[in-house]
Amino acid sequence: MEIDKLDLILIAPLPPHVWFQDMADFADGIIDSAASRRLTQSLQGRGAFRRFKNQVYEHHPELISAWHALRDVRAHRRAVEWLLDQELIDVGAAQQFATDHPDPGLP
Prior knowledge:
mainly alpha
């Protein structure tokens, strides 16, 4: 089968600033002010994604599951938004999914 003959829909990657905002929101939402400050500082300048990951995994492993939960729920909601934009699901289904999958509480 030739790929040109398939009925495929292009999925464009999201720009980095979308994922960066998730990290910033996580850093801002952490109750531990020292950890919040260190995570926020890790987001300054080039290499922010790597520094943030290192800060969470190496210095605050207690935050790993909370970070994964926030990152994953937002990624899933974005996937549902994409499906809606492609008219593969209806507005009601997208809204219900968003309602059923809010951002998790942060430690």
